[in-house]
Amino acid sequence: MLRCHIIQAVFKRNVLSYFSGVLGYLFIVVFVVAGAFAAFSPQFFANNLANLDQLGRWFPFLLLFIIPAVTMSTWSDEKKMGTDELLFTLPASDLEILLGKYLAVLAVYTTALLFSTTHILVLSFIGSPDWGVLISTYIGYWAAGAALLSAGMFASVLTSSTTVAFVLGATICCIPVFIGQVAPWSDLIQGLSLTEQFRDFSIGVIPVSGVLYFLSFTVFMLYLNLVFISKRHWSADQQANMGIQYFLRAVCLAATLISVNVVATYAGSRIDLTAERLYSLSETTDTLVEKIEKDQPVTIQAYISPDVPREYVPVRKRLMGLLRQYNQLGGSSIQVRIVDVEPFSEASEEARLFGISGRQVQSERGGKTFVETIFLGAVISSPFDEVVIPFFDIGTPVEYELTRSIRTVSKEDRLTVGILTTDAQVNGGFDMASMHSMPEWRIITELKKQYEVETVAPDAPIDGEKFDVLIAVLPSSLTQPQMENFVTYVKAGNPVLIFDDPLPVSGGRGMALAPRQPKPKQGGGGMFGQQGPPPEQKADGGRATTLLNALEIFWDNGQVVWDTSGEKLHPEFGDALRPELVFISPASGTQSAFSSKSSITAGLQELLTFFPGTIMPRAGSKIKFEPLLRTSTESGLLDWGDITEPSMFGGIGVAANPLRVLDPEAHVIAAHVTSPEDNGINVVFVADADIISDQMFVIRERGFRRTAESAELKFDNVTFILNAVDVLAGDDSFLNLRKRRAKNRTLTSVEAQKSVSLEERNKEEEKATKEADEELEIAKENFSKEVTKIQNDESLDARTKTIMLRMAQDSEQRKANVAEANIEREKLERIEDIKSKTERQIRTIENRVRFWAIVIPPIPALILGITILCLRIYNENRDIATTRRHV
Fold this sequence. Notes:
Blueprint: H1 4-19, H2 22-39, H3 42-47, H4 53-71, H5 76-81, H6 83-89, H7 94-115, H8 118-126, H9 131-157, H10 162-182, H11 187-191, H12 194-202, E1 205-207, H13 208-229, H14 239-267, E2 270-272, H15 283-291, E3 298-304, H16 313-330, E4 334-340, H17 346-353, E5 359-365, E6 368-374, E7 376-381, E8 386-389, H18 398-409, E9 416-420, E10 429-431, E11 436-438, H19 442-448, E12 452-456, E13 469-473, H20 480-491, E14 496-499, H21 545-551, E15 553-555, E16 560-563, H22 565-569, E17 581-584, E18 607-610, E19 615-617, E20 624-630, E21 635-638, H23 640-643, E22 644-646, E23 652-654, E24 668-674, E25 682-686, H24 694-702, H25 717-729, H26 735-739, H27 748-791, H28 798-855, H29 858-878
Parallel strand pairs: 3-4, 9-12, 9-13, 13-14, 14-25
Antiparallel strand pairs: 1-2, 3-7, 5-6, 7-8, 10-11, 15-19, 16-21, 17-18, 20-24, 22-23, 24-25
Helix pairs in contact: 1-7, 2-4, 2-28, 2-29, 4-9, 4-10, 7-9, 7-13, 9-10, 9-12, 9-13, 12-13, 13-14, 15-18, 20-21, 27-28
């Protein structure tokens, strides 16, 4: 039975002993200062994220210093001064003394760690960190240190020299810190690595296996401590036999603890403390993993660069964290292999064999532009199939991509999506009008990752049993017989997703596909200059009246919506933003911009549409009309004649500055149209086809910035489309998965200070460009004056004027070329000077933050040390007689 008062007495004695000297405070000060240097390194500012990732990378190495420093005198000083014999003669058991000493060094380490929490104060001042991540990170710091303290005490029990104890302690602690590098391919060896076990804590997850690992390590090392301090009870004759006996006991204990840890690792229990619960795999993933047959496991091989530019740091961190969760959750059903890939290494060659090539990414550091080749790809395979994700880009929903790929390779039954053949040629193929091959739209590639996708010809009746969802892009381009077949399919209650557009501006032929434009001629201009066959006529003249009557909605095929709220939402675009680029967002002032009732739009943040149309229900309609997307009230409508004008190359173009009249309506751009009866109409109608253009997939993957310094834009177009397909198909398994996103927790305070410098830089660059343009205009005016002077000189005949004009033109052109080159060179030099000045200002801001981040942490430790020193001096002098004190 352990006696707490004895443990407390030993604990108090050792804690007071540590804090009674200067050396203890010195170690703590060095520890927190070194931690500040690591936490707020230049890479911290390069990543621009309010977290302690940089400290986490170096923390195991910091432990190799602070742990031996705290524990080196635990037993060695007792031996050196001979107090160990006195200590063990006290009425206390060896275990009670051991626990008292361990709790004492743990209290000292905890105190040092508490002093380092000033790093959190600095983070909260310069950014908005995820407090859950910080809490789990510090729990990891504490658990890792608590485990190594027992190893440091074991080193101290082996010697009577504190110096030797320090060296031995650092050496023993190196074993769990570096063991993972000995055999990186071995899961068992990796599981014994302290660095590997700490990783989950650093991303905001507390794994039960990690807690058990640190606890097991502590128990094992304390057991070795207990064995060595108990040796004094062994007689000389017993030394050999007892040594073998306790060695075997230690081996058995180690084997038991390792076994328990392996079982805990496969159990995969964990607590996710991140604000967005980023590393808690969804119910969809859990259900899918449970269905995987253990004799037909899924393998995930991820090829990841160890260092990536700042834009890709959150992507890499999330990918690494989720892969670890898949590995723990899957057990023997999912095998995860993570490969660090450097360019031109053997690992990079292996990645390329799977179709994963490094992507060249441009980044800016220290005012210089760098192009780096990075790897962020994965291969998901099973005995049935293989899916390659070549690159996880900035906007890639990581868990969604991984889980969807796992479902694909595990051969689950997939639903079927039909793509209606229209003039939009979403499926790609050969275009008879232009006589060119048309590429497949990205939406088809995306759908094939989840569904079986088939092309549907509307020339014959469409089989209502064959497709779970039918997608029709620009059905207004159908002929009358084709439209009849399509409408019959819609009326039968089959789920249909429709995209039609009064003025399409993207895709293969852009505005030529507008409903009010005639169908293109087949075969171009014909052979030998002859005209091809006349084009077929669009149903209802392109107005899609037959379809609209079936849906009981109104849509004008020539009416375009405009909205000026984009200027407020994205001022960084300035005058480059046309009102016909309509941003859909609750931030525009319309709270119902996204329907809160529909799972298609729940959780969306912002969409971008190009020259969209609008739809509305007809008066007296019995059809249920659920608006999905709405503009702001700062919007209006433009008729076909106002928004278009003849193009100089034939056809139509977009009017540069049409007359726009504001109306008070929030126009509906998309709606879910259903009828109440069984097998009734079930259609999502979107009055914009550009919403699914290939450009939106590129923006989704790589993000979009107007300038290098402006905020990154992330649009939910792709999520909206896929959600609509899923809801119509009756498959809601991926809806919540697509919405999960991490908040980008940047260094907002530092960014605000930098933005002032960057704004000044932009103004200076604009000023330099303007002055350069003005100088060029002056040069052009001089040439014009010379020409005018020659032309107005009546004393010259026509031939002479022509010769002089040519000579003047040649002379002035040479002058203009030289002047333009000089002006451009001076402008570039000035801009470079401005950039250099701005970078110096930015470095000054970062260095100022870093200075205070390093200076603040040791202050509490120094204050405590000075306070205790003063109290100690006061207590020593208090009982001394006045006559005995030196004046």
